Task: structure prediction
Amino acid sequence: MSNLFDRSLQQEFTWQSKHIKFFLNLKGFGPATVEKIIDINPDINQWDKEYVAGQSSNYEKFIKSLPDEIPHLADLDDEIVINFKDTRFPKQFLDMKKDRPLLIWYKGSLELGDCIAVVGSRNIVPETKNITTDIVKLAGERNLSIVSGLAKGVDEAAHIAALENNLKTIAILPSSIDNILPTSNKNLAFEIVENGGLLMSEYEIGSPKNPERSNYIRRNRLQAGLSEATIIAQSSIDGGTMTTAKHTIDNERYLVVYNSHTDVVEYSGNFLLCQPLKEVKNIDSILSKQQQKLVQNKEKIADFEFDNNNSFKDILGTIFDA
Result:
C-alpha cells in the first residue's frame, strides 16, 4: 500500500484488540495487511473504506473486501489477549522483519527476558534428548527463557528441562490456549504456567479443536520471532522444524544447529544447515531466493553449529556477550 495523500499523521491510534480481531477474521486479511490498514487509518472512529482502498495497490480487491462501517464489537478481555500497541506486548515480536503478529492470546507471565527457541522433531532419538537436556541446562546458567511449541519430542524435552532448571519457558501453540495440543501435554502446560511461564497463541479462545496444518507453520514463525537464537536439535529435511529455521533466517536471528556427525535420517536437516549454501543440491526447493540471499555470504547456512556442551556454551557467549 502506498501513502498517497496520507492522512495518517493527522490521526491518533484508537484501534482496540476487538477491532484487530475483526479485521484478522476477514477473508484474506493476514497480520501484514491489517497492519498496513492500521497505518493508513489509525483512528478507527474515522473509518473510511474508500480512502483505505484508494491507498492500496489493488483497489478493486479492497473495495470489495473492506467493511462499509465498523460494527458494534464486544470488548476482549485484556487479561488473556494483548495487541501490538500494548506496552506489555513482547518487544521481540515488534522487531520481526516480516509478518509480525498483531494480537496474541496468552496465559501466564508476559515478562520474558532473553529468549532462545529449542525446537526439533517429534520422533526424538536418545542422542537428541540428551543434548536437548544439556543445552537447556547451559541456557539456565544465563537465565535464558526457553521457547518451544509443546509438541511431543524435542519441544516436550525442552520444556521439561527448563522446568527442572527453574527456567521460564514459553509454549507457542498452533491451537487456542483453551485447547492444549497434544492432549497428552495438558499437565505440562499447567506446570509451565504454574512455574511462571507462558502459553501463547494467535488463535482466539473457542477456535476449532482441530487446527489447520498452516497453523503449525505460522506458529513456527513466532518461535523464531520471539527468540534471539533458534536452536535446531533434530530435524529432517522435510520436517516442520525446517520451517522454523527458515523463519529464523527471514528475521535475521541467529540459527544454531546441533551436528551429530552421523548420517542417520533424523539429522538430515541438521546436516543440510551445517553446509555452505553453494554445496546444497536443489537449494531452490528448500530456501527462497530471499533466504538464499540472506545467507549467501556466510560460511554455512547456520550461523553456528555445535557438537558438545563446551561448543554450545561458547556459542551462547558469542551471542549474548556481544
